[in-house]
Amino acid sequence: MDATNESSEGAPFILLGLTTSPEQQRPLFGLFLVLYVAGILGNGLIVAAIRASPALHAPMYFLLAHLSFADLCFTSVTVPKMLANLLAHDRSISVAGCLTQMYFFFALGVTDSCLLAAMAYDRYVAIRHPLHYATRMSRAVCKTLVGTAWLVSHVHSLLHILLMARLSFCASHHVPHFFCDHQPLLRLSCSDTRHIQLLIFTEGAAVVVTPFLLILASYGAIAAAVLRLPSASGRLRAVSTCGSHLAVVSLFYGTVIAVYFQPTSRYEAERGRVATVMYTVVTPMLNPVIYSLRNRDVQGALRALFTGRRISAGDS
Length: 316
Known about the structure:
By secondary structure, the protein is mainly α. The protein has helices spanning 3-9, 22-52, 59-87, 95-128, 133-136, 139-164, 182-188, 194-226, 232-260, 269-293, 296-307; strands at residues 13-15, 92-93, 174-175.
């Protein structure tokens, strides 16, 4: 390797962001600031309400609190840096900072994926096996599901980062993205990236595609049970709830699969940025609305949180 390449390898990356047009930067800053604050407030309130209310200590809410916390952290890994870069002239990020951002982004994204699958399983058990719900979704089982989600996600992320850290970046360090992500960085590398791409299509599929298929199977079984409900209004309400859940889940997994499960040679930066916004900003903001803010128990807990009134388990 020549001296030019050696000096280039340690150079910081330059995040080009969502746009290089000065006219678009301030409107985009305002838009994503609103989305980010809405997501942080929504998820933060859900976590606070569930922790404060004994009425929300059921398995479903235990899983939801962890999902909201993961979403809160997930957006905070990328969006603040993106907002700063929309206003700053210096868009550089060190190699260590880039790998750190990538590590937590992957870890929290996979945690989201696993928790969504756990929540779908919880609803499946509640509807298909109501008499055995207390034993199948005991506190110990819920803790095991959540612990497994966090453990698997960090092992997955560590494996990818160890491989990414061995790559050489001896050409351009300008990343056509608003954060350090797999595909744009792989395109900048002058190393052999086939082993990382193979890992994405194998181990990556296990932590993304498998939970998605489990969610679809769970909701399919739930839909079959819902259609047998005697009340037409009950069927309509259940279908509406399941439909909104599936819409957000499909948006999350659909964009993730579209971005990562394709050869690096076919990756298009502009399309990749748009898809990434969907699962890094939009779905974490929608999750509180879809999963909780329409729930009467959660609404009551939030009112109690703001008024200082205590809620007992018997109030729900």
